[in-house]
TrEMBL record:
Keywords: Transferase. Transmembrane segments: none annotated. SUPFAM superfamilies: UDP-Glycosyltransferase/glycogen phosphorylase. CDD domains: GT1_Gtf-like. This is Glycosyltransferase. PANTHER family: STEROL 3-BETA-GLUCOSYLTRANSFERASE, STEROL 3-BETA-GLUCOSYLTRANSFERASE UGT80A2. The keyword Transferase applies. Signal peptide: none annotated. The keyword Transferase applies. It comes from the Bacteria.
Length: 311
């Protein structure tokens, strides 16, 4: 990515570069060219000391970043390129992350950028949700990056819901068609695509893979979770959900209908989980989201040295 980033900076002449935390080329090229940069921390996984017990992995990662810096960054720089020394925007809050550690940076928790985010409802049959008033509705989804991996887990989740007919109903996102043709019934509705953010306004719980987007969207609505992390940052995010008291963790590869069902029973019927989810919701909404992030970026840009402009 480095040549393209360098060309874009040269062509646009920005006051500030905003670099996603996982795309370190943005940070390293900006530091080499002397342009201030801000880190956009779109997942909270880097805010925890998740590799404290893995010194070999930590050393390997540090070595990779050091070699990248020698090739495309400023070899004299010493800061962690995943955290801008000027500004790091964390799209979460401490109420979810729990205790956090970061290198030297101006860390700003702005919460999720969800206020204006709406997925088109399309042809979603909203009337299905009205067929059983008073029955808790559950969203079951494994996101968009796990389409081929979740057939067994989705099937066991559906079985857990159907074992609770009259108590639970579920909307299931199955973009890969792993469940086959499942006709709409009184307790399960399977769709390839869902208007997820709008749907969450009517859910009592979410069963998911602990992807950061799905977790923050659920908690933005005060909805507790059953999390079954698969890979990447998902185990860290799942631990944060449990630590916040806003959900129950199950094993993706092993959990069957009994374990998933028991976890659903807990988050739907025990008020502590919903209370914790609502505490996170309130913190998210108070943090300011995309508007707060823009304000911090404007302040950084205004302070950036630009030829011919008074400081």
């Amino acid at each position: 990515m480095a040549p393209g980033v360098a060309a874009a900076i040269a062509a646009f002449g920005p006051d500030v570069v905003v670099a996603d935390q996982q795309t370190v080329a943005g940070a390293l090229v900006a530091e080499r060219l002397g342009v201030p940069f801000a880190t956009s921390s779109t997942t909270s996984a880097e805010l925890t000391d998740s590799m404290a017990g893995l010194p070999g992995v930590h050393s390997w990662l540090t070595g990779l970043l050091g070699e990248l810096r020698r090739r495309i960054g400023d070899p004299a720089a010493t800061h962690d390129p995943r955290f801008s020394p000027a500004l790091t925007l964390a799209f979460t809050t401490p109420e979810l992350t729990g205790p956090y550690t970061t290198p030297d940076t101006d860390l700003r928790f702005v919460g999720p950028a969800l206020a204006a985010r709406r997925t088109a409802a399309g042809d979603f049959p909203w009337q299905w949700l009205d067929l059983a008033p008073g029955t808790a509705a559950v969203l079951i989804t494994l996101g968009t990056a796990n389409t081929d991996a979740g057939g067994r887990f989705l099937a066991e989740s559906v079985a857990a819901v159907r074992a609770r007919t009259g108590q639970l109903r579920a909307v299931v996102c199955d973009p890969g068609g792993l469940l086959g043709t499942v006709p709409p019934g009184p307790d399960v509705l399977v769709r390839a695509q869902l208007p997820q953010v709008a749907l969450l306004e009517r859910m009592s719980a979410v069963v998911c893979h602990a992807g950061h987007n799905t977790v923050t969207e659920a908690l933005w609505h005060g909805v507790p979770l059953v999390v079954a992390p698969i890979r990447d940052d998902q185990p860290v995010v799942a631990a944060q959900v449990v630590g916040a008291g806003a959900g129950v963790r199950v094993k993706f590869a092993r959990a069957g209908r009994e374990r998933i069902g028991a976890a659903l029973d807990a988050v739907v019927t025990e008020p502590g989980y919903r209370d914790a989810a609502r505490r996170v919701r309130d913190a998210f909404r108070a943090a300011g989201g995309e508007s707060a992030a823009a304000t911090h970026l404007e302040k950084l840009a205004a302070a950036a040295p630009v030829a011919g402009r008074p400081r």
